[in-house]
Amino acid sequence: MKLVVFLLALLPLDRLIYLGFTDGLGANPIEFITRSTGTWALVLLCVTLAMTPLRLITGSSQPIQCRRMLGLFCFFYACLHFMIWLWLDQNFDLVAMLKDVVKRPFITMGFLSLVLLIPLALTSSHWAQRKLGRRWAVLHKLIYVISITVILHYWWHKAGKNDLQTVWIYAGVVLILLSCRIPMIRNQLTKLKPR
Amino acid sequence: MSYKDPQILQSDITPQAVYEKRRQLIQAAAAGSFGLALAPWFSREALAANPQSLAATPNPLYAGKDGLTPLKDVKGYNNFYEFGTDKRDPAENAGSLQTRPWTITIDGLVKKPMTFDIDALLKLAPMEQRVYRLRCVEGWSMVIPWDGYPLSSLLNKVEPLGSAKYVEFVSLADRKQMPGVNSPILDWPYREGLRLDEAMNPLTLLTFGLYGEILPKQNGAPVRVVVPWKYGFKSAKSIVKIRFTEEMPVTSWYKYAPNEYGFYSNVNPAVDHPRWSQASERRIGDPKGIFAPKIKTQMFNGYSDQVASMYAGMDLKKFY
């Protein structure tokens, strides 16, 4: 099961590599790669967030067993997304990069999302989980904050062109997934579990 | 038995070895680094055989030193929201556009309001080919050989009145032909505008083709303007109406987000877009490959000599 999820999560990267070798990235390949990795980071964030409601509904523990890997893949695509920007847009100029982070809200939100993902990735091991005990669960609630900063990042990026359709879809998905954490809805989901 | 033409002297015939050497040179040029700029010109052979071709004389004043953007990128990567918001949408959806019959109506503050048929427009002035840089407000750029003639040739026909200060362009907005018009992205029809002196500037091209081919539908067929010192969206596509006015026209993007898309929208590396810097740009089809670094954006997209005087004394941060 885990192997299948691993291979599936690698598909977006495989696709980019394949397209890269077959001249399939279009007229503006950098834009294509940046948007693709950004989109897949967001998709994997949503999938990661979907594991808890999935467990509640099915009663199976398998979703939770895959959750860490999915979260790390989200971080992986977010890092690719960030590195392409840092390399090809900012030319590794850290001062220019930080200026952009401060000056432009949509970059601020993207950068903040990545920074907040780092402690989650670092504490994803069983060892860290044991070490942190109850604090681990509290720390990993950061993912709720991140899902909002990511949507803001996406929304702000698209806002100037009045092209918000896809943003609203993702915002809706995130909203539904977050609402599954509200105790009342959570209880309702548990009742769906087959007995 | 071989045929010998008595009119052709032996000395007139290029020896085969020399002939082949030439072909090699041409091929080497097409394949080599300077050939990357020339390659599209060699590919024009294919277009010449196409009935869709458009005869235009290259204007050496606008030959340009920049390598041309490959035709497939010029045709495959477009902002033309009437056909969808994705860059690939116009190439996919613009097939439904009917470019004939087509007329442009010119009215407003003019002595002789007129309606021109597309065939009359094509014959109105000698067609020339000009290589222009195109800079999109989104931070990418292309180099395109456009075919057309100065817009002033057309505008002078209707004899503008002294009170006319601006020119407004209105693009076609037909739900049947243009699927994007069904989405409330902008207040259709698309409207753009220029100050009269900008419209009359010899650089402003009324454009009917590119790369010696009649304008592809996704690039604004059958007739558009090209204003090379301004961001791409100022160059209205598929124009059906031109109107002379005294007041500054309210353009579509200005109406949607005035703080992001000013009326002038001159290419200016010193004035940022609110969400990104305009100091540099990514050249589409850069021969250095996909990891080519961005290039520096030039003031007025490199056309300062021809246009800067029109803005003398103006605060270009205020009038962005």
Descriptive labels:
heterodimer; A: 195 residues; mainly alpha; 10 helices; globular; B: 320 residues; alpha+beta; 8-stranded mixed sheet; 21% helix; 21% strand
3D architecture notes:
The complex is a heterodimer of chains A (195) and B (320). Chain A is mostly helical and 195 residues long. In chain A, 83% of the residues lie in helices and 0% in strands. Chain A is built from 10 helices and no strands. In chain A, helix 2 crosses helix 10 (183-191). With 320 residues, chain B is of the alpha+beta class. Chain B is 21% helix and 21% strand. In chain B, the strands form 2 sheets. In chain B, strands 1, 4, 5, 8, 9, 10, 12 and 13 form an 8-stranded mixed β-sheet that branches. A 5-stranded mixed β-sheet of chain B has the order 3-2-11-6-7. In chain B, strand 2 and strand 3 (114-117) form a beta hairpin. Chain B is globular and about 50 Å long.
CA radius of gyration of chain B? 22 Å
Give the oligomeric state.
Answer: heterodimer
If you average the pLDDT of chain A, what whole number results?
93
State the major sheet of chain B. Answer: 8 strands, mixed
Q: How does the helix and strand content of chain B classify structurally?
A: alpha+beta
Distance between the termini of chain B: 75 Å
Low-confidence stretches of chain B: 31-49
Radius of gyration of chain A, in Å, reads 18 Å
Count of alpha/pi helices of chain B: 10
Q: How many helices of chain A in DSSP terms?
A: 10
H/E element string of chain B?
HHHEHHEEHEEHEEHEEEEHEEH
- What is the percentage of strand-forming residues of chain A? under 5%
- End-to-end gap of chain A: 23 Å
Beta strand count of chain A? 0
User: What's the SSE pattern of chain A?
Assistant: HHHHHHHHHH
Molecular shape of chain B: globular
Number of strands of chain B: 13
**How much of the sequence of chain B is in beta strands?**
15-25%
General form of chain A: globular
